[in-house]
Each structure stands twice: as structure tokens, then as C-alpha cells.
Amino acid sequence: MDREVWFETLRRRVADFYLSDPADEFRQSGRSAGAERWFETRHCLVEAIDRSGDFMDIGCANGLLLDTLIEWLGPDGLTIVPHGIDFVPELIELARRRHPHHVDNFSVANVWDWAPDRRYDYVRTNVEYVPDTDRAGNLRRLFDETVGPGGRLIVCHYVGGGNQTDDIAGLMRSVGLDVSGITGADGVAVAWVDAPGRSADS
Fold first, then answer.
1. Residue ranges of the chain with pLDDT lower than 70?
2. Strands (E) located in the chain
């Protein structure tokens, strides 16, 4: 399938599903099973955040993940400044409403050709945001072009069941990225890689 057609098809599917229930904030962020399942599949990301910083959420949808990460990190004394992109304009509008003090940090963009004018301490993405044949190369580009010195690229993959962290780590290693950590939960795999300049005590 032509890449442009692939992205347009995905954009329509995402918009149709995420925006189908204006009253369901979880569905607007990709989950329709409620708060408990949201916690089960997203809280594991806290393990990848070990210091405060600017956090770019690629595919941020309605901004709920950033919102809940801010809440979950609070007891540990960590703070993140929320940033996000999504290729569905209506979702970006919802994210801006959710984060009224950071509206300028959210913009409509497709990860495939996104060219940020700055770098971030954390960049979170999913592998399935691009076609299979582009996944490894896209991760390499994101690491090289969007992660700041000492920053961290966090890669997620939502699956039907089980834990596929080894697959994600292998994909990252295939383009020369040294995996720093892995975690996951039932239905989600997470791995991350650190940019030069990061140390345990920095």
C-alpha cells in the first residue's frame, strides 16, 4: 500500500474510534475498557521516568496519558512538562483543553515527517504509528533528531496479549540503539534507550 494511503487510512480509523464517544476520555486516548485497564496498561511507563523534564508524547490523542503521568509521578517528587503531537486535529484540540497552561506545546503532526524545532528530555512513541517496513528506521530518526543530550526515547507497542518487550528491544538494536531498560504489562511492551550524557546520578 502506498504510504500516503496507509497514513490516511489509519487517520480515519483513529478518528472514528477515538472520537466516537465524547463522554469517554479513555476511548479518546485509545482505550475503551475504563480506568482500571488504563492503569494496568499505562502505569508501567512510570518505570521509564527517573527524573523531571520535558516530555514529548507522540500520538498524544486527548492528552490523558500526559495528565495521568503527571499525577502518578507526583508522589516521587518528579515533574514533567507536557508536550504532544497527533495527526488528528480534533484530538489535539482536546489535549489543549486538558492542558490549558501548555496549549502551545501541542500541535498537529504526523510522526513520519515531523521535524521539531527543539529536543526533549523524554520522547515517547509507538512502533505501530508507521508501516512495518519503516518502523526501525523511524525509531533511529526519532532518537537522532528529537532526543536531547542525556534524554531518553521510550518505545511502546500495544499488543493483543502477552509481553513482547524482546521484540521491541530487538527492533531498536537492529538500528544500533542500545536498550537501557524494558518493562511492560499484559498487552503492552515498553523499552527505552538513553542518549549520551545520561548517567545514574545526573
1. 160-166, 199-202
2. 53-58, 80-86, 106-108, 120-126, 147-158, 179-185, 188-194
The label of the residue with cell 508522589 reads 75
Q: Which residues of 39-65 are buried (b: 16+ CB within 10 A; e: fewer)?
A: eebbebbeebbeeebbbbbbbbbbbbb
Q: For residues 177 and 172, what is the distance between their CA atoms, to the nearest angstrom?
A: 5
SS3 of 96, please? helix
pTM for the model stands at 0.93
Long-range pairs of 2-5 with CB within 8 A, sequence gap ≥ 24: 3/112, 3/131, 3/134
**Domains, the chain, ordered by start:** 3-194 (3.40.50.150)
- Rounded to 10 deg, the angle between the 35-42 and 64-73 helix axes is 70
pLDDT of residue 34: 80
Which pLDDT score is estimated for 163?
Answer: 46
- Under 8 Å between Cβ of 136 and 174: yes
